[in-house]
Batch of 3 targets.
Target 1
Amino acid sequence: MRVQRSFAFVDLAGFSSLTATEGDERAVAVLVGFRGVLREVCARRGVRIAKWLGDGAMLVSVEPAALVQTVLELVHATAAAHLPTPMTCGATTGAVLLLEGDDYVGHAVNVAARLCDLAGPEEVLAERQLAPAVPRWGEAVPLPPLEVRGLATPLDVVRLRLRPTGPEAQPDPVCGLPLVSATAAAVRQDAVGRPVLLCSASCLETWEGRPAPTPEEQGSLRSPFIGS
């Protein structure tokens, strides 16, 4: 069965060196932290972790935009977590064969894996056809055609990254991505009337579904901004 999907491979650069220099226990602790970030971001954005690959993973999404948002947030989140092994990522989209209901075989899968191998620390390399899926808070930077092992012709690729922001940026209260009004997908108000910038429908849904403060907590000196 042939299906249209978007794929990303993510990996921790330098993980083998970390294991050799700091020991297995330290490496496992880093990996557990990385997988925790990955699970939380993918669950919120509706992207499936198709398989774990040691210190990396293969991600699959029906919607290209969800995949792009996920990998951009992952770069930001892993950097914010100060992991000693920065994330690398390769992403693409295309028609592939669905094998035995939960595996994928095809050119797009191979290309995403190769791009992950070529990406540098905190870098997302993607085929150009994913550029239209980039959100307003991200950007696709064109790169020269890229020679990829196993492919006869160079790939047309872009580097996906967060759009630079100035000191006026404020973090999305759910994912922490820096936003300004022009790059936010939604703007709401908190409990005291301040603007809240949200990056996507998924973060908006999470923010609106947060537990409401009790009457005792609302406006108390102990937690004056609970619910904001």
Note: The first strand starts at residue 2 and ends at 12.
Target 2
Amino acid sequence: MHFLVLIVVLCFVSGAIAEDDASESTQRDQSSQVAEDFSHDGVWKPKGAILGGVFLPPPALKGITLTIDHDQYEVTVDGEEHSDKGTFTLDETTTPKRMTIKSNSGPNKGKTILAIYEVKNADAMRVCYDLSGKAFPKEFKAPKGSELYLVGYRRQAPDAKDSKPSTTFVPVE
């Protein structure tokens, strides 16, 4: 289960060509605005996840909760005694955007995890973590045999910390 906590910490998701060109420009503009106005703060649940090419089953996902408050995070996993807590910093000057996660307590204490992230909308983001901590992932993929973990998160209503997410898998790519 400690590995599952590590996975979560590593917890912060196309028509005609002519139409796509016009809509992509509009979407980029809207996405940029969402990113500028986006607040990571809140309670997040994984909607779908892939670890080294293997999909995590819904029962594993529903027991995971990520809580973000400014630059602090906490990951709890049902059945685990200790949560993973730490800090993260964001680099929004790169494409894709980067996140550096440092665990201060819990099963990952002392570990640094490198990740990339993308804001999908006000209530959805996806994150790709390099569990080895060696390099930032280059794309939102977690191929078989890699130490990459790709997860799509959905923000929960303020009082829904203990709510259960849908068991229907939604692709994160």
Note: The first helix runs from residue 2 to 9.
Target 3
Amino acid sequence: MNEMVTIPREEYDLLRAAAEDLADLQSYDRAKGALAEGADELLPADYANRLLDGENPLRVYRDLRGLTQAMLAEKAGVNRVTVAEIETGRKQGSVASLRAVADALDVTLDDLTE
């Protein structure tokens, strides 16, 4: 089992680059598959930039879905004040409230908390 093969450095570099390309293609195929299955969605650049700029994820996803705080609260079965307090950072919200809001927005709990 201790067999060893020696190849020129140039050939090794080509094989390594091909392996990296294959890994990239496999990642792309998984991402496209998740989109096709509805397990993932594309986020428009302006909303992605808002998240990257540190804006509250709850507000960003609520805006993306076209919901007011009251509409989201009703859909999630929570108080509108709870939604407002989470959006402004005054409160973190309970796990149950965050889960209900995440379900109403059709996002994961991680999307709202990371």
Note: The chain has two domains: 1-40, 45-113.
